[in-house]
Amino acid sequence: MEVPQASSLPTGIPRRLARRPYVAAALLQWRNTYQLRRARVLTVAALALTLLVGLLAAPPTGPMLEWLAGNPVITFALSAGLFGLSAVRRQARIQADAVSSWLSALPATSSSLLRLASRTAAQFLAAAVFVGLAAAVGRMTAPAASRLVLITAIGTVAGTLGGLRLVGRSATGSPGWHYAGVRRARRNWASAPSLAPLSYWPLAKGRFFGRPKMTSRVVLLVLLSIPAGLHDVPGQVAIAVAAGCMTLVTLLALSAAAVATAGQAARWLAPTPIRSWTFVSAFVWRVALKQAAVLTVVILLACAVGYSQVLRTGVKAAVAFLAASCFTAAAACLWAAHQTGLGAARRGFERRKT
Amino acid sequence: MTEPVQNGDQRSPVLQVVSLHAGYDKLIVLSGVDLELSRGEWLALLGPNASGKTTLLHCIAGMLVPSAGSISICGCSLRQDALGAKGQLGFGCAPERLPGLLTGRQCLEVYAAAKGLGTPDAGVLELAEAFAFTAMLDRFVGSYSLGTRQKLAVLLALLGEPALVVLDEAFNGLDPASALVLKRHLRERVTAGRCGVLLATHALDVVERYSDRAVLLLEGRIARQWGREQLAALRAMPGEGLEAALAAASAPSQSQ
């Protein structure tokens, strides 16, 4: 196996960063990542650039930016919400770092404000550059672009400050373990072990991903973007949208959880002689079952409250979603199995018949 | 074992833990721990799994805020003067927490810079050489084995001549030769009165042969202490020695 070497890397910590070990370590890691995986970094940068050009060239971009510039309240709410969320997440990570980082015991500050501000500034700068480019290529007028950047800047500051206050009030980072249900050990598990408990892993992770704290933030963002009561949008539509949004978050959280945990599960089981497809089916079936149950309840509820025309479309959409979800989860499991060598061991593994 | 050097700082405590209570959410892990460690002293912290050893060390390193009680390092309160207290501390972080995308040398440099040193001190680099770690310095930590990571964690803890060295299971994963080098190095530092060492460990040979004192932590309280003479007596005993004493001391707690 090739051992990565870094002897060509320049060493030494700039004097300004000497007392800011978190910042120094982060910068060194960025530099090392670039040196070690230059091709990958450049590919990602090229993809981002292509996406940027594609977005600028897309016909709806100009009118949408103009509309945002013309609706300061909505733009402010959106930017404040997004930057507030970003601040909350960043601050929670910084607080977790203070407890568990390799640098925690050092006689130096955690530079939390600098780390938070630099990320927020980078995000705002990216948004401002995008708007500026849109104005430069004639997708929107210069006054509208300046107005949009100004409103976004105000939203950024307000959202970041609000996000920091939210973190200050609540307890620090909620541990995820209490989202995993405690299961009773069954009698025959010792004598007849099965892979059935494996299917609870993505389920628990999905519960963690779709926890009320996260779901409420997403719903809040969606509700803020609905101008309820202003443009003939009745309140019940907003409530229905919120409910739909919560359901969607639950379903997507389950799919994301299956993808996110597949690698860990495959690594854990790699030394065992389990076949790849056995792993896939044991891992994915309960997620699929739960998603099917949620979708069935939603369709039945929609029919019960009088949206009978939803039935056919709903069933089609549900089947399509389930198929896509199963395919994604299975692909993630197979990829993880391939990467970790799960299932490959069986080819060279001869079972002894006793 | 040589006698410690008697110098002016010898009796001053480098660590004072008074009536410490700590835990995680509603789980109480430490309840009323009192501990004192002087310069030129090696204190071993013993206890079964989940007895609160790592929690105690994390409180001392300022990584966990205790619910009650106080911790002072070289007279600096960890609560009121955290930076001053941490300036005297060398804490061996968990090897799995080391950053995979930095090289060993870069890790040492980040630590050295944070401790106000221009470069990693010569003593630590000599220890790295004795560990046969020098060849690994310019490789990424992500490619290190557990033992190599452990060596780096120990080197980081010893940077900057700290008055208090706190290590958690520092011999885990070390090969016998490196473990011996580390034991001798720590003993040398302690004997010269350069620091006090607090080591949480299950390696009883280290406790018997190298420690000056040992304390047993059971269910978040200090249940038993052994002084230098008692440890020497246990070492001289034929058979199980400290192992049997430890099992006897832990027995009531284990049976509950």
Structure description:
- The complex is a heterodimer of chains A (354) and B (256).
- Chain A has 12 helices and no strands.
- Chain A is an all-alpha fold and 354 residues long.
- Chain A folds into 2 domains: 15-171, no CATH class; 202-346.
- In chain A, α3 (61-70) crosses α6 (142-169).
- Mean pLDDT of chain A is 82; it is low at 1-10, 169-176 and 348-354.
- With 256 residues, chain B is α/β, with parallel strands linked by helices.
- Chain B has 2 domains: 12-88 and 163-169 and 196-256, P-loop containing nucleotide triphosphate hydrolases (Rossmann fold), CATH 3.40.50.300; 92-161, no CATH class.
- Chain B is built from 9 helices and 10 strands.
- Chain B has helices at 53-60, 82-87, 104-114, 122-130, 146-158, 176-191, 204-210, 228-236, 242-255, and strands at 13-24, 27-38, 42-46, 68-73, 76-77, 89-91, 164-168, 196-200, 213-218, 221-226.
- In chain B, a hairpin with a 2-residue loop joins β4 and β5 (76-77).
- In chain B, α4 (122-130) packs antiparallel against α5.
- The longest helix of chain B has 16 residues, at 176-191.
- Chain B starts with 12 loop residues before the first strand and ends with a helix.
- Mean pLDDT of chain B is 88; it is low at 1-8.
- The A-B interface holds A 3-7, 9, 11-13, 17-19, 21, 24-25, 28-29, 32-33, 36, 98-109 and B 58, 61-64, 83-87, 89, 91, 93-94, 97-99, 101-103, 105-107, 109-116, 138-140, 142-143, 156.
Q: In what range is the share of β-strand residues of chain A?
A: under 5%
| Oligomerization status of the protein chains | heterodimer
The biggest chain-chain interface is: A-B, 32 and 37 residues
CATH topology of the largest domain in chain B: Rossmann fold
Overall mean pLDDT of chain A: 82
> How many separate structural domains of chain B?
2
Low-confidence spans of chain A: 1-10, 169-176, 348-354
Q: How many angstroms does the end-to-end distance of chain B come to?
A: 38 Å
- Describe the sheet with the most strands of chain B: 6 strands, mixed
Helix content of chain A: over 70%
Q: Whole-number average pLDDT of chain B?
A: 88
Main sheet: strands, sense, barrel of chain A: none
Count of discrete domains of chain A: 2
Radius of gyration of chain A: 25 Å
Any idea what the shape of chain B is? Answer: globular
Identify the overall geometry of chain A: globular
Fourth-tier CATH superfamily name of the largest domain in chain B: P-loop containing nucleotide triphosphate hydrolases
- Uncertain stretches of 5 or more adjacent residues of chain B: 1-8
Order of helices and strands of chain A: HHHHHHHHHHHH
Q: Helix tally of chain A?
A: 12
> How are the strands ordered across the major sheet of chain B?
6-7-8-3-9-10
